[in-house]
Automatic annotation (TrEMBL):
UniProt xrefs under InterPro entries: DNA/RNA_pol_sf, DNA_pol_Y-fam_little_finger, Rev_trsase/Diguanyl_cyclase, SulA_CellDiv_inhibitor, UmuC
Subunit details: Monomer.
Keywords: DNA damage
Signal peptide start-end: none
Cofactor field: Mg(2+)
Protein name: DNA-directed DNA polymerase
Domain DNA polymerase Y-family little finger: 229-325
Keyword DNA damage part of the UniProt annotation: yes
UniProt EC number: 2.7.7.7
Reaction catalysis annotation: DNA(n) + a 2'-deoxyribonucleoside 5'-triphosphate = DNA(n+1) + diphosphate
């Protein structure tokens, strides 16, 4: 039977050295966190680093990293989502888990507490946890009575013997309580509330009442509670694509069945994959119309999974897969047998949803007209999933039958400069121009069309543009403009006229 290698003497000695984390506070470097060896050496949080080095010269010092601490706390919160969807941060180091109605799924409150603390301890975290009827009572117990489970109505008896420091109040309040001879929470609770409020403020009185089970402070979950949740737990981790796909399909059927009972469809769906090593991967898709068919949900997630830049990595396997409908709507029943327009709209909406699932919803846009005569500001691009109906009812200017289009089919987001060697002045078009290093000889011209800019937004730029529809010798048609009026009196250093600035703004079909 093979055994683990024992640490060498030097390694054991190094492991016993106290370690602390320091942070700067009011231009002083103070101890921010200490390990058990540092506590045995007489160090405590808040002690200046210079004093700590005097007490323990062999001290190992690390700089605090609040950003990394917050990321780790959020990662742990993601992992805790497998136990309850109501997980809230209690910064800087705590979490609240509302396990109402969830504990029986894990064998009861005691079993759930052991599962959570045991899993985190195996990953190297020092964990202190407790269960109580109020969040403040549970947090108070974690500071001095880890592992305790308190039934509803017994919070006062449970926290009464604890020191006043367990309440987590300001240091000035805790010091004032001790100087007044109130060393335990029970001592403070024995005084009349108006006496405590007069001396230590209403905020502390409220905190004390919540710790005693007299009301509770609401917690703010990190994520809004979905409208519907279905999930599948596996006795053994799964890692194959086939099992994952089959699981998503079965969950989609369960989700649709639950929504159908209330006549609703999903507009936002999220699939969460919980790995055995604690990592969590969430994939979200949105739809333009409420989805009521499981095969559509299955297809959307297949499109999304196939298009991931970072493929879904099961690692050692998933032990939980969850499908949630974050936003739902009531499905309006329509007569679909005789109205072909409704079928066309449904197919278009389904196509947009599939494309959005693959490349992202913000990349599939529709254009709505705006009241502006400036070409680049006369249309607004919006996500097609949410504005498809508005785009269908938009009133665009109608084209005159038999006449060429006034605006190009393709309009550039920003006009691109072109080189014009000469043009008919003062208001004439160019006879030749160079765009993207290609020369174009103009053979046909329509214009000019003068468009005045919005003078209150120009900030010193030109206020007029003269647009021309031009065609070159190869049959290509361009929409070009001269920026500003032609100033023939302007001359360069050699005495030659300074040409106006020309741009190409779009291409006709």
């Amino acid at each position: 039977m093979a055994g683990l290698p024992l640490p060498q003497a030097g390694e054991a000695k190094k492991a016993e050295l106290p370690s602390v984390v320091v942070a700067k506070d009011h231009n002083a470097i103070l101890l921010h966190a200490v390990d058990e060896a540092a506590v045995r050496a007489g160090l405590s949080i808040g002690l200046p680093l210079a004093n700590a080095r005097a007490i323990c010269p062999e001290l190992t010092v690390y700089d605090a990293d609040p950003a990394a601490d917050l990321k780790t706390l959020n990662d742990i919160a993601d992992w805790c989502d497998r136990f309850t969807p109501l997980v809230a941060l209690d910064a800087p180091y705590g979490l609240f888990l509302d396990i109402t109605g969830c504990a029986h799924l894990f064998g009861g409150e005691r079993a759930l507490l052991q599962i959570v603390t045991g899993a985190l301890s195996r990953r190297g975290f020092a964990v202190s946890a407790a269960i109580a009827g109020t969040s403040i009572a549970a947090r108070t117990l974690t500071r001095t009575a880890s592992g305790k489970i308190v039934a509803d109505g017994e919070e006062a008896a449970a926290v009464g013997p604890l020191p006043v420091s367990a309440l987590g109040a300001d240091a000035a309040v805790t010091t004032g309580l001790r100087r007044a001879g109130l060393k335990t929470i029970g001592d403070v609770a024995s005084r009349a509330p108006h006496e405590i409020s007069a001396r230590f403020g209403a905020a502390f009185t409220t905190l004390l009442g919540h710790a005693l089970g007299q009301g509770d402070a609401p917690i703010s979950p990190r994520k809004p509670l979905p409208d519907y949740i279905v999930e599948k737990r596996f006795p053994e981790p799964v890692a194959t694509d086939t099992v994952i796909a089959l699981t998503l399909s079965s969950l989609a059927k369960m989700l649709v069945a639950a929504m159908d009972k209330q006549g609703k469809g999903a507009r936002q769906l999220e699939a969460s994959f919980f790995r055995t090593d604690g990592a969590v991967r969430a994939i979200m898709v949105e739809t333009g119309r409420p989805v009521t068919r499981p095969e559509m949900i299955d297809r959307l997630f297949r499109e999304r999974l196939d298009a991931l830049n970072d493929p879904l990595d099961p690692g050692f396997g998933f032990d939980l897969i969850r499908l949630a409908a974050g936003r739902t709507e009531i499905v309006v029943q329509q007569q679909r047998d005789l109205d072909a327009t409704i079928h066309d709209n449904d197919e278009l909406s389904a196509l947009i949803d599939r494309i959005a699932a693959r490349i992202g919803g913000k990349r599939v846009v529709v254009y709505l007209p705006l009241e502006s005569h400036v070409p680049e500001r006369s249309a607004l691009a919006l996500p097609a999933q949410h504005h498809l109906a508005a785009a269908g009812a938009a009133a665009w200017p109608e084209r005159v039958a038999g006449e060429p289009p006034l605006r190009p089919l393709r309009l550039f987001e920003r006009p691109e400069p072109i080189k014009v060697p000469f043009a008919t002045v003062p208001d004439g078009p160019p006879h030749q121009f160079t765009w993207r290093r290609a020369q174009h000889d103009v053979v046909r011209v329509e214009g000019p069309e003068r468009i005045a800019m919005e003078w209150w937004k120009q900030d010193g730029a030109s206020l007029t543009r003269d647009y021309f529809r031009v065609e070159d010798a190869e049959g290509q048609r361009f929409w070009i403009f001269r920026d500003g009026l032609y100033e023939s009196e302007l001359r360069d250093e050699d005495g030659k006229p300074v040409p106006a600035n020309w741009y190409v703004h779009g291409l006709f079909a």
